[in-house]
């Protein structure tokens, strides 16, 4: 099952950040939002925060399509209302595309498992000779 990572910033305002977190509690998130995420082929999703930076992880089905999810979200008035509400708390990362790009995909730059399994010896320290 593929795992995807995204980043986004919040407005650096403690009251807004607290409100954003409240909206994401199990008691406050709209059921239609949870349903739309699951219907898109997302099996699990988590959001982590440090200061005003968010990182989102998604475990998705093999046939998950970000484009199909975006199209379904754009056609769903309840998702659009949620996105409008969330936009009051969010701000684009530097370098975001014009036109409202919010969550930006992250690229993995290190894997401990891959490093441990490297066969070519490139992780060994250079010899002194």
- β content, as a range? 15-25%
Give the domain tally: 1
Gyration radius (Cα, Å) is 19 Å
CATH superfamily: Dimeric alpha+beta barrel
Structure classification: alpha+beta
CATH domain fold name:
Alpha-Beta Plaits
Total helix count? 5
By DSSP, the count of extended strands is: 5
In the CATH classification, which architecture applies?
2-Layer Sandwich
- Residue share in helix: 25-40%
Question: How does the major sheet shape up?
Answer: 5 strands, antiparallel
What is the subunit organization of this protein? Answer: single chain
Instruction: Tell me, rounded to a whole number, the average pLDDT.
Output: 92
Look at the structure and give the CATH class: Alpha Beta
Can you write the helix and strand succession as a string? EHHEEHHEEH
What best-fitting shape do the alpha-carbon axes yield? globular
Protein name: L-rhamnose mutarotase
GO molecular function: L-rhamnose mutarotase activity
Enzyme class: isomerase
Pfam families: rhaM (PF05336)
How would you summarize this macromolecular structure in one to three sentences?
The chain is of the alpha+beta class. Helix content is 34%, strand content 22%.
Annotate the secondary structure layout.
Elements: E1 3-10, H1 14-23, H2 31-39, E2 42-50, E3 53-60, H3 66-74, H4 77-87, E4 90-91, E5 104-105, H5 112-116
Antiparallel strand pairs: 1-3, 1-4, 1-5, 2-3
How does this model look, in words?
With 129 residues, the protein is an alpha+beta fold. It has one domain: Alpha-Beta Plaits, CATH 3.30.70.1090. It is built from five helices and five strands, in the order E-H-H-E-E-H-H-E-E-H. It has helices at 14-23, 31-39, 66-74, 77-87, 112-116, and strands at 3-10, 42-50, 53-60, 90-91, 104-105. Strands 1, 2, 3, 4 and 5 form a five-stranded antiparallel beta sheet that branches. Strand 2 and strand 3 (53-60) form a beta hairpin. The longest helix is centred in the middle third of the chain and has 11 residues, at 77-87. 5% of the residues are buried. InterPro entries: Carb_Metab_Mutarotase (IPR052996), Dimeric_a/b-barrel (IPR011008), Rham/fucose_mutarotase (IPR008000). It holds the Pfam family rhaM. This is L-rhamnose mutarotase. Keywords: Isomerase.
């Amino acid at each position: 099952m593929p795992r995807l990572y995204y980043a986004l910033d919040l407005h650096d305002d403690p009251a807004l950040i607290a409100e954003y977190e409240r909206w994401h509690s199990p008691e406050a998130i709209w059921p239609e939002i949870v349903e739309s995420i699951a219907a898109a082929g997302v099996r699990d999703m988590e959001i982590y925060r440090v200061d005003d930076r968010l990182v989102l992880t998604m475990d998705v089905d093999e046939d998950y399509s970000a484009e199909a999810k975006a199209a379904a979200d754009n056609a769903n008035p309840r998702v659009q209302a949620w996105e409008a509400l969330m936009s009051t708390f969010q701000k684009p990362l530097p370098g975001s595309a014009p036109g409202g790009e919010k969550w930006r995909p992250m690229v993995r730059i290190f894997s401990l498992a891959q490093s441990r399994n490297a066969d070519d010896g490139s992780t060994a320290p250079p010899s002194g000779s």
